[in-house]
Amino acid sequence: MEPPNGLPFTNEQLKEAGLLGEEPSLFALQCLNDHKKPLSSPVSPTLSDASTPSSTLPIASNTTAVAPYELSDWERTTYYHGISRDPPKLIYRSDLLDNPFPKPVGSHHHLPTKSIHGVFGTPLNPVWRTVGPQICGILKARKICFSSIDTARFVTHGEDNKDSLGPIVIWISAPPNTATAKDAHDASQDILAILESNGVKGAVVEWCEGVVVWA
Questions:
Q1: What is the average pLDDT score of the chain?
Q2: By C-alpha distance, which of 109, 118, 93, 94 is closest to 54?
Q3: Which among 21, 87, 108, 174 could bridge 179 via Cys, Cβ 3.0 to 4.6 Å?
Q4: DSSP-assigned letters across all residues of 59-95
């Protein structure tokens, strides 16, 4: 796979990021290009697998229960903070209830940033050519318009240089004002079932607003 023109990544850099062989979309590569940190996840003794620094932040006392596909404006606009100069808006994520993204309180709160990482060396890598077309088929059968389907893991950069590597993510981008949160929620249940049946457990499906812009 040769990197697209204007995105200065060598095959070796993509391999370090876990993206070589995963055929990431131009949308994902643009996020990588915008981010100022190295492609590979930081080598740090504080790197923990599938932990969430944001869960340690104080939570506003007026937090209420929401529908399984309902997002706050705060989460919709800040969830992908840091992955690019103009991060996409979140539409839906399948772990919304199990992994809350609370709005910090206080005047000196820290907003974590994220960077994109690949899925190299995970159970998804060897079965992607099987499950990828099936996921695409689910979206088409449901008549959901989408811009790209990517695989990723996100590194969250928290306070005091504490980084956490999140779970495998099926990252779906859809043009603005096309897929609703309910559309995404319903389709994600089928996607997760396909992943489970192919030995990929604990994965998350995330949907964001995004279009591929060709330079």
A1: 76
A2: 109
A3: 174
A4: --TT-----TT---HHHHHHTTTTSSSSPPPEEEETT
CA 112 to chain centroid:
14
Let me know: does 204 contact 119? Beta carbons within 8 Å.
Answer: no
Residues 92-102 pLDDT 10s: 999 999 998 87
| Structure tokens, 145 | 């318009």
Q: Do the beta carbons of residue 135 and residue 205 sit within 8 Å? A: no
Q: What is the pTM of this model?
A: 0.71
Strands 48-49, 90-93: pairing is: unpaired
The answer, yes or no, to whether residue 164 has pLDDT greater than 80, is: yes
Dist CA 181 CA 207 (whole Å): 8
**CB-based contact 94:205 (threshold 8 Å):** yes
Query: Rounded to the nearest 5°, which phi and psi values hold at 70?
Result: -100, 130
In this structure, what DSSP letter does residue 101 have? -
Q: Are 1 and 20 in contact (CB under 8 A)?
A: yes
Cα–Cα distance measured from residue 54 to residue 37, given in angstroms and rounded to the nearest whole number: 20
* pLDDT value for 171: 96
Residue type, position 128, single letter:
W
The number of residues making up the chain comes to: 215
**In this predicted structure, what is the pLDDT of residue 7?**
45
Q: For residues 170 and 162, what is the distance between their CA atoms, to the nearest angstrom?
A: 24
